[in-house]
Specification:
It holds the Pfam family YdjM. By secondary structure, the protein is mostly helical. The chain has one domain (3-149). 67% of the residues lie in helices and 3% in strands. A two-stranded antiparallel ribbon has the order 1-2.
């Protein structure tokens, strides 16, 4: 999926998990783009190019940073230093990214096991799924925002 869809899915996940905390939505959104640190050509990877390049050449794309191990590790690392809503939103935002990528391709969900999980799609289906998912997430976020303002 595209980085914008990953951001939106992370936002929605962080928001839902915490019962409507917008700070958690922001943390989830940011965490939702972090797994693409393994792709030095991605928008997020370009920001951290040296690190992204090393991760990509060492592990490959959609491996370690797209695994349950990575998501749980992020939560465990943040746990002693943050409030519960922070580490929960971060771990959930990463999981939302992984699930999104499983809709448009395969990831090594159980890394270091080399078993890939997900649905292979054509470039056309990738775009359709990505855009449809983004629209659904925008509707959800817009609806929740509107209800909050009223």
């Amino acid at each position: 999926m595209e980085w914008t869809t990953h951001f939106l899915s992370g936002m929605a996940a962080g928001h839902m998990l915490t019962g409507g905390d917008w700070r958690a939505a922001l943390v989830g959104g940011i965490a939702g783009v972090i797994p693409d640190l393994d792709e030095h050509k991605s928008k997020f990877g370009k920001i951290f190019l040296p690190i992204a390049y090393v991760i990509n050449k060492t592990f490959g794309h959609r491996t370690i940073t797209h695994s349950l191990l990575y998501s749980f590790s992020a939560g465990i690392i943040l746990y002693p230093f943050t409030d519960p809503w922070v580490w929960l939103a971060a771990a959930t935002g990463i999981l939302a990214h992984i699930l999104g990528d499983m809709l448009t391709g395969k990831v090594e969900l159980f890394y270091p096991a080399k078993k890939s999980c997900g649905i292979n799609t054509s470039p056309l289906m990738f775009n359709i799924i990505d855009r449809l998912t983004a629209i659904i997430l925008l509707v959800y976020i817009g609806r929740v925002t509107l209800i909050t303002l009223i």
